[in-house]
Specification:
- The longest helix is centred in the first third of the chain and has 8 residues, at 25-32.
- Strands 3-2-6-9-10-5-4 form a seven-stranded antiparallel beta sheet. Strands 1-11-12 form a three-stranded antiparallel beta sheet, with no helix packed on it. A two-stranded antiparallel ribbon has the order 7-8.
- The model is unreliable at 1-7 and 10-19 (pLDDT under 50).
- The chain is an alpha+beta fold.
- The protein contains five helices and twelve strands.
Length: 188
């Protein structure tokens, strides 16, 4: 806690700057909505779901590079979400960095309460990651395959830190898909 020297009969406690724990959910969300973020599709293959397994996908905006040596990335997953539960059991996963022309993909995988992702992948051009078996979008700006190195509980989310096993760059035209003030946006 930051404190100043008291003057005029006030005490140090009177001048203490309070911690931001009094910030409401709405205030916090409104402030964070002003931070532009890239949009990715996080994917994994659940080998135990059905006779051939099932592909699972989730739109994420809380994704970032953590380290160059070793190459590490981080994705934030809501506790108890299907992807959080799956990545607790399946150590390898994929990330497709979405282009501005893939807004429909972001919206599709951001839907809450869906039972199955099978139909969501049906018409998307994908390849299987050789390291993760996760579906990777062939027309994404770039794809990464990752292996979970660490999971950190942080409030109502889990921070999953993954070692990057492989990357692929595409020749897709256009810029990245971004998320700003509650909407998907493009640069330019």
């Amino acid at each position: 806690m930051l404190q100043k020297t008291p003057t005029n009969g006030t005490t140090a406690l009177d001048l203490a700057i309070p911690h931001a724990e009094g910030v409401s959910n709405e205030e916090f969300k409104a402030a964070m909505a002003r931070l532009a973020a890239g949009v990715v599709l996080v994917t994994a293959h659940d080998p135990d779901d059905g006779p051939h397994g099932e592909d699972v996908g989730m739109t994420a905006t809380a994704f970032l590079s953590v380290s160059l040596d070793p190459p590490l990335v981080l994705v934030s997953l809501r506790n108890g979400s299907r992807m959080d539960d799956l990545l607790a059991d399946v150590p390898v996963w994929g990330v497709s960095i979405l282009s501005q022309s893939q807004r429909h993909v972001a919206g599709r995988f951001a839907m809450k309460g869906r039972v199955s992702d099978r139909l969501l992948f049906a018409d998307l051009p994908c390849t299987r990651g050789p390291h993760s078996d996760a579906p990777l979008l062939t027309d994404a700006l770039a794809t990464l395959e990752c292996r979970t190195e660490n999971r950190v509980l942080a409030g109502d989310h889990t921070l999953v830190i993954g070692r990057v096993l492989a990357t692929t760059l595409s020749s897709a035209e256009g810029g990245p898909l971004t998320y700003f003030r509650g909407k998907y946006r493009t640069l330019g």
